[in-house]
Amino acid sequence: MKSPHETKVCVIGLGSMGFGMAESLLRAGFAVTGVDVNVEAMERFAALGGAVAPDPMTGAQAADLVIAVVVNADQTEQVLFGPRGAVAAMGSGGVVMSCATMAPDRARQFAARCVEAGQDFLDTPISGGALRAASGELTVMGSGPSEVFARIRPVLDCVAAKVYELGEEAGTGAAFKVVNQLLAGVHIAAACEAITFAKAMGLDLEKVYEVITASAGNSWMFENRVPHVLEGDYSPRSAVDIFTKDLGIVADIGRHLKFPTPIASTALQMFVMTAAAGMGRDDDASVARMLANIAGLELPAAGGLVGEG
After folding, report:
1. Cβ atoms of 66 and 96 closer than 8 Å
2. Which of 2, 8, 162, 177 is catalytic?
């Protein structure tokens, strides 16, 4: 790969994860162009010194690397192959990194289309959250040709603390991410149920958090999400709608494989209920608010107490 300042990277999707990745690359000296439908996100990135573009095709002109950090497979297809898609505008022999959670067969389809267009494709779903994205400490669950991973290693080292190369075929990385999302969704739902259950028993929620995070019942999601409940802050770091999508993928794959996913399916319904209550775009810890509403409980809020979303 060229030196950072000579390497043109287009990051499509400046949400909580994509913005952090773009910021990390910019900090390391890469020539980064950001693309997003959110004007405020574009302005924030431009204020850091990054370039911005109105659409993926413009942003990817002669790009060496396009990183698609959008919500799902349909958005990935649109930004890569749509009427103003990035792939057709890239430099010859460029690389596409696809970071959205999706079913493995969609990742394989995108890989084939990129190869047909003369570009290399890496199936690289990510995990770690907005803070780790901003500090360049994500986990990448990747699959694709090893020589392509080697070619963009400086970029990967910039955005991730751990990069797992899980096979030569696209779709393997996506499958690993689906397993991760099964666990993540279940753990968030369980954490929200636990902290609301504690409220129903009249416990001091701050003390519950202190005790559980030092005990065997703790999980990364309990430790990360319960503070949102304690602070009454449901601004979306990761939205409820993300897990209605991701656990829906788990359910679809389970049906196809004739493999039961009863715990994940229950968690899915908890996220669906939360979205149906009008909190789909709020933080995924809003599952606690949904349960509190059902039980008639008051949870902490930034300005007092709240019992409904």
Report:
1. yes
2. 177
- 177 is known as an active-site residue: yes
CATH value at residue 295:
1.10.1040.10
Q: In 3D, which of 268, 287, 96 has the Cα closest to residue 181?
A: 268
Query: Can you give the residue range of the structural domain that contains 15?
Result: 4-169
For the whole model, what pTM was predicted?
A: 0.93
Cβ atoms 118, 92 nearer than 8 A: yes
pLDDT in tens, 86-136: 999 997 899 999 999 999 999 999 999 999 999 999 999 999 988 899 999
Domain holding 100: CATH number? 3.40.50.720
- Between CA 83 and CA 243, with CA 170 as vertex, the angle to 5 degrees is 75
Cα distance between residue 286 and residue 294, in whole Å: 13
Q: Is residue 1 very low, low, confident or very high in pLDDT (cuts 50, 70, 90)?
A: low
Confidence band (pLDDT; 50, 70, 90) for 6?
confident
